[in-house]
Amino acid sequence: MNLSSLMEVNVLVLAYLGDTIYENYVRKYLILKGISNVDSLQKEAINYVSAKGQAMYLTKMVEEEFFTEEEMAVIKRARNYKTTSHPKSCDIITYKHATVLEALIGYLDLLGKKERINEIMNFILK
User: Fold this and answer.
1) Backbone dihedral region for residue 67 (phi beyond 0: left; psi -120 to 50: alpha; all else: beta)
2) pLDDT at residue 98 in the model
3) What sign does the CA torsion over 8, 63, 119, 44 have?
4) Which of 27, 29, 37, 119 stands 20 to 30 A from 43 (CA)?
5) Which residue numbers in the chain have pLDDT < 70?
6) Is 19 a catalytic residue?
7) How far is CA 72 from each of CA 65, 69, 103, 114, rounded to the nearest angstrom?
8) 3-state SS class at 66
9) Of residues 19, 39, 91, 109, which has the active-site annotation?
10) Contact criterion met (CB below 8 Å) for 61 and 82
11) Are 26 and 45 a contacting pair, CB within 8 Å?
12) The domain made up of 3-125 is a member of CATH 1.10.1520.10
């Protein structure tokens, strides 16, 4: 898939893919950290995979100018995507920021940029 066709993929489709990748990184990280109880894993994972947590990490990375120009273009496109629905557990802005992070990860995955995904996840999980 090339860059121009990827910019036409629905943001929510990118986030759908990115969500699975993001959660997989978090689960592996927590298991490798030595957490062996499933309930404990689930409780710890919420700190990372909740919309509130994802929005916080995205905001921090944007503030620290962590993203490339190309990534910022994806972030802006995802942020501007029109949506009115969101979970009851958070407000629309928080949900949109979480979706933006997931969409970026999905975008990078479709481009085969695994190393960049590693850099983003290392920032989040450090």
Assistant:
1) beta
2) 93
3) negative
4) 119
5) 1-4, 6, 83-89
6) yes
7) 9, 5, 12, 18
8) coil
9) 19
10) no
11) yes
12) yes
